[in-house]
Amino acid sequence: MAQFGLRFKLPDYLIELYRDTFKNDLSHTNGDSSWTLPMPAHYVIGTDGVIGYAEVNPDSCKSAHNACKGAERLQGTGVHRTTHSPAVCGPAI
């Protein structure tokens, strides 16, 4: 995700939480001092391989909701959804 710029930098209070409480040193994990995480992304891809919907949004709840709406719009067009649980979007199309 880094090569596409789809990361966000953690604010200082989250760096402390991850490092001190969770014992997760992202600078070690990432191999640099950026303290970044990937941005949540959702895609709706047709069985023909065509991307019918794509969104990158730091608010994963909004992004998941919008992806579900995108899947609903494409219902009956050969879309196969495998990335969302029924709790988020309802049963798969």
Note the main attributes of this structure:
93 residues; alpha+beta; 2 domains; two-stranded antiparallel ribbon; two-stranded antiparallel sheet; 4 helices; 4 strands; elongated; disordered C terminus
Could you explain how this protein is built, in words?
By secondary structure, the chain is an alpha+beta fold. It folds into two domains: 38 residues, no CATH class; 41 residues. Helices cover 35% and strands 18% of the residues. The protein contains four helices and four strands, in the order E-H-H-E-E-E-H-H. The protein has a two-stranded antiparallel sheet with strand order 1-2. A hairpin with a 5-residue loop joins strand 3 and strand 4. It is elongated and about 45 Å long.
Sheet bearing the most strands, described?
2 strands, antiparallel
The counted number of beta strands is 4
Domain count, please report it. 2
Q: What would you report as the Rg, rounded to the nearest angstrom?
A: 17 Å
The largest beta-sheet arranges its strands as: 1-2
| Mean pLDDT score | 73
β-strand percent reads 15-25%
Low-confidence stretches: 78-93
Helix content, binned percent:
25-40%
Order of helices and strands: EHHEEEHH
DSSP summary: helix tally: 4
Structural class designation: alpha+beta
Gross morphology: elongated
- How far apart lie the N and C ends? 28 Å
